[in-house]
Amino acid sequence: MRKQSSGASKKVGLAPGTVIHVGDTNISKPKITLISYDKDTFEEKVVESIEDCFLCKDPKTVSWINVDGVHQVDIIEKIGTQFGLHPLVMEDIVHTEQRPKMEDFESYIYLVIKMLQFDDDTSVVTSEQVSIILGPGFVLSFQEIEGDTFDHVRGRIRNSKGRIRSAGASYLAYALMDSIVDNYFVVLEKIGEFLEVLEEDMIENPTPAILQDIHMIKKEIIYLRRSVWPLREVINNLDRSESPLVEKVTVVFLKDLYDHTIRIIETAETYRDITSGIMDVYLSSVSNKMNEVMKTLTIIATIFIPLTFIAGVYGMNFEHMPELDWEWGYLAAWTIMVMISVSMLIYFRRKRWL
């Protein structure tokens, strides 16, 4: 969902740390899920009461609390109070227009990432803010709506695949970020397919509708680029962080995630150049088409110039014009005009103007 400062004016004049939701309300009731696991045990449930989450802080297990829907600020405040979150963090969680960033509060790390999807029907990149809080033995994630790219992470936890069940909370936070970043490649792939179709249509028949599509997809690529550029800094800061919350085993994977982010940025830059190239080809095609039309009209006008001259001369109202009384004058005028026209067409053909 693309937002344009939706409700940001509600915060004008309020004290810093005031928890007021800014954004669209896309879910009627927040959904809270709790996943708790270690190498040998696993538990997953939908939490009916927010207080049930507070029993999960077992140092022997990793707990993941996911909240779908951040418009109900009292839930965010209760979670923030229980886990010792700074008021500014709670404010940023419900203010869904944050740029990707990382903030280290020593006892926990706060991350903001944009989860992107490509709408096949409208060819628009939709965005959702995801806030991730990494603490000792727990991860909190806050999303605007239900439905995400974390199903593969949940599946790996349920089936105990890979190292996720034996790793700590920082690896879980990495896995969530990696899932979001991997989905960027899906978005880029769909944008690439759209550009291929657009280029083919543009070559066959450049129309004003294609021009609108070019402007639209260029805007989507710029939007994606703006979402990914700050993410590179976020991952780099997390990689270089000396926080004890980030385990050494996770740092290696963060470096790989940073490389993925660089690849996404480079691909986005390439697609932006391709879009600019398509735009140039479109303008050239339209210009060439216009030149062909103007050439045709110019040739027609050039042929009719001498014919118009002859018709103008013999259309003058003078009484004493010798050819007016000539019996074969009309036929001779037509013969001359036809010969001039044919001669000019032959000349244009030899010059390859036709």
Structure keywords:
354 residues; alpha+beta; Beta Polymerase, domain 2; Methane Monooxygenase Hydroxylase, Chain G, domain 1; rod-shaped
Helix/strand order: EEEHHEEEEHHHHH
Helix content: 40-55%
Main sheet strand line-up: 2-1-3-7-6-5-4
What is the CATH superfamily of the largest domain?
CorA soluble domain-like
Question: Helix/strand/pairing class, anyone?
Answer: alpha+beta
What fold name stands as the CATH topology of the largest domain? Beta Polymerase, domain 2
Low-confidence stretches: none
Indicate the CATH architecture of the largest domain: 2-Layer Sandwich
How large a portion of the residues is in β-strands, by DSSP E? 5-15%
Query: Got a strand count?
Result: 7
Please report the number of helical segments.
7
Average of per-residue pLDDT values? 86
Please tell me what the overall shape is: rod-shaped
Taken together, the total number of domains comes to 2
CATH class of the largest domain: Alpha Beta
Report Rg: 34 Å
Describe the protein.
It is a single chain. The chain has 354 residues and is of the alpha+beta class. It folds into 2 domains: 277 residues, CorA soluble domain-like (Beta Polymerase, domain 2); 61 residues, Magnesium transport protein CorA, transmembrane region (Methane Monooxygenase Hydroxylase, Chain G, domain 1, Up-down Bundle), CATH 1.20.58. Helices cover 52% and strands 15% of the residues. The chain has 7 helices and 7 strands; from the N terminus they run βββααββββααααα. A 7-stranded mixed sheet has the order 2-1-3-7-6-5-4, with helices on both faces. A hairpin with a 4-residue loop joins β5 and β6. α4 packs antiparallel against α5 and α5 runs antiparallel to α6. It is rod-shaped and about 120 Å long. The two termini are 53 Å apart.
